Amino acid sequence: MRIFLVDAFADAPFRGNAAAVCLPDRKLSDAWMQSLAQEMAQAETAFVQPLGDPFRLRWFTPSQEVDLCGHATLASAHILWEESLVPAETPIAFSTNSGNLVCSRNDGRIDMDFPLEAAEPTEGQAIAEALHEQPAWTGANRMDWLVELPSEHLLRSLTPDFQAIARLGRRGVIVTAQAENGADYDFVSRFFAPNAGVPEDSVTGSAHCALGPYWAAKLGNPSLTGFQASRRGGYVRVTVRDDHVVLSGHAVTTLRGEIE
Questions:
Q1: Domain locations in the chain as residue ranges
Q2: Which of 25, 80, 236, 253 is the most buried (most CB within 10 A)?
Q3: Which of 39, 44, 133, 258 is catalytic?
């Protein structure tokens, strides 16, 4: 059974967000997949099973299965093309817990057609206490909290209370701010998900399903570039189209192996 490690939303090794991609050669139990994800100790481990068209795709953090993951989807598509399991110019459809997701190649990048997950305004006092900063705006969608801070500087210097974030419920907290003048991106973000076993994620594609529509409405532009300001960091291009978003990025394989 083959397994790979891929740096997603990265154009060079050891940047972006690493995901493990497993290509099962047999039917696997949920408990076994969860155990492997714990063993790999990455933010997500993806399991890609051929069902014809589409492939079946599932994602596990070290502690639980999740319904939507961007960087491990990008990593999975990258491996299927790189290993010649799908012809180079053929789009890839994945059947997931969030519906069918389609990936295609575009000028060296991978485009992913994802559902739009807009956030609705909410009361934010508990979030402010967890972040130790006063938000400019707070909201939530079915998965996450979304918080805008007044400046990029405040976002980058955040030292949140992870236990307090875990008590908020939902998968995690997306924190964002408008880019400072002169930046090569439109907005900046960080993502904290202690409930999912990931205190701070490196680059979170699915968070941009909320960030895209939020900043598109605020900046009046449907095509934007976000930078996730984690220790590794990474860029996500996002284009808002009606009820879905297109997320774009690069990927680099760093490891190939076999599960004994």
A1: 2-115+247-258, 120-241
A2: 236
A3: 44
